[in-house]
Amino acid sequence: MASETPKLPIRISKVTDRYLLFDIDDVMYLRRNHNICSPFVGTMPQAPSQSVFMSLPIELMAEEATVLVEKGVAYIADDSVFHPSRIVSPDAASRNAYLQDLRRDGTRAAAAARELAEYKKANAASKGKGKKKDKKLDSGSAIDKDGPVSEEISLFDSSSTRETKPKAEPRAPDVWAVTPATSGALLTPPPEEDTSALLDVPAGYPLYAHLHENGYFMMPGLRFGCDYNVYPGDPLRFHSHFQATHYAWNEEISLLDLVTGGRLGTNVKKSYLIGGAIRSGNDKEEEADEKESHVKNKASSKTPVRAFSIEWAAM
């Protein structure tokens, strides 16, 4: 299993307004260190006709991509432009670096294979010694029962003194030929210009950033009629605690929405959480922007947020 720390910043590929990650090392690093647990959207090569178990890539929400770019952990690459320009005509330095990267991967793979072979060989030898001891004990007891053995058999039996030379095992190659699953090595280093302009930041980003900063994991909340499904830890270990929905600071909230969200959350053992960025009320431009479905580069993780949780009790 891959466990290496990837080279930072991580490349997030923007493909037709979708933010995708193709490298398993990047996925594992972001899940362990930055609470990113986006769903897999790719097809499994050995089971392409089913949609129960999915594979790489993972699709990031726009909020997840934004928070990673703000932290300097990742950058956005417009795949329709960035990928072909690096692959079609790489310079000599990039090509040599790519070949060296392949050689390093091949050396590591060969070393791991040799280590595994030596472990299996030692394990088999230890088991074989135990079996030989058991056979010797069984043969000794059989000799005692049958009586003394003829000296001619014990002295002149050539089969007992004949030694067989061990066959020379073929030497494993020092470097394996590796076919990379991704083209990440050819696409580094990242572009020098700022890539945050490629982000379409939703109006609810301040609420997401507020929850993310407090250590929560979040996944898309469409299944439960909300914006984000909020977990106190990794979703593989914890049940979600909140179904979060963003509202603008001065936006009117329908009472029916509160009742519906509260009852649904209680039925699935969650609290219905609503929240939004705190506004002074004097800046009309901010309020107008917040009511739009998407706001480009207006929101920030430093925007103060206030949230409330609602539970349905009884009537």
From TrEMBL:
Its EC number is 4.6.1.16. Coiled coil: none annotated. Residues 205-274 form the tRNA intron endonuclease catalytic domain. The keyword Ion transport does not apply. The active site is at Y231, H239, K270. The keyword tRNA processing applies. InterPro entries: tRNA_endonuc-like_dom_sf, tRNA_intron_Endo_cat-like_sf, tRNA_intron_Endonuc_cat-like, TSEN34, TSEN34_N. Keywords: Lyase, tRNA processing. Belongs to the tRNA-intron endonuclease family. Constitutes one of the two catalytic subunit of the tRNA-splicing endonuclease complex, a complex responsible for identification and cleavage of the splice sites in pre-tRNA. It cleaves pre-tRNA at the 5'- and 3'-splice sites to release the intron. The products are an intron and two tRNA half-molecules bearing 2',3'-cyclic phosphate and 5'-OH termini. There are no conserved sequences at the splice sites, but the intron is invariably located at the same site in the gene, placing the splice sites an invariant distance from the constant structural features of the tRNA body. This is tRNA-splicing endonuclease subunit Sen34. It comes from Neoarthrinium moseri.
